[in-house]
Amino acid sequence: MTGLTLPAACLCLMTGALLGGLFLFFKLLRGLLYGGRLCAAALDIIFCLVWALTAFLCALVVDKGRLRMFQVVMQVLGAWGTVVALDPFINGVTNIVRRFGRWLGKGLSRPASFLRKRWRIKRADMKAKRDERRKAAQSRKKPGRGKVPGGKGTPRYRKVPVKSKRYALKKKKTKNPLEKLT
Fold it and tell me: Which Pfam family is one of this chain's hits (predicted)?
C-alpha cells in the first residue's frame, strides 16, 4: 500500500478512531476508579506506548516503515472525531455509575450501621455483667493477711519437674562401638 490511496487513508482513520476509543476507555476507567494523578499518569503512559506502536505498525503497512504526514494527520483526525463524538456519553456513563455506587453504598451501610450499633450495645451489656460478677466475687472473698510471704495474697507456684528428670532415659551401654551398627 504505497502512496496516498483510499485504503491507506481509511486504515489510518480507523486506527485513529480505535485509539480515540482507547483514550475514552481509559478516561472511563480513571473516572470509575476515582484515580488521581498517579493513575492518570500511568494510563497516559500506556496510551502513548500503544499509540506509538500503532503508528509504527500502520507506517509499516502504508509505506514500508516510513512515517508519512498524511498517516499522522488521518490518525489524529480519527481519534479527534471519536473523542468529540463520544466524550459526552462517557462523562454521562461515569456520572451514572458513580451515583449508583453511592446509592448502593448508602443502601448497604444502613443495615451495617444498625448491626454495628446493636453489637456495641450487646458488648457494653456483656462487659457490665462481667464487671458486676467480678465485683460480687471479690466481695465474697475473705480478706487476706496482707503481703505475707506464702499468704493468701501471693500466688503459689507448683514446682514442675523438668522433662528429663520425669522420665529416666534407658541407654544401652555397649563396650564395642561396632555393636551399634549391627
Answer: Spore_YabQ
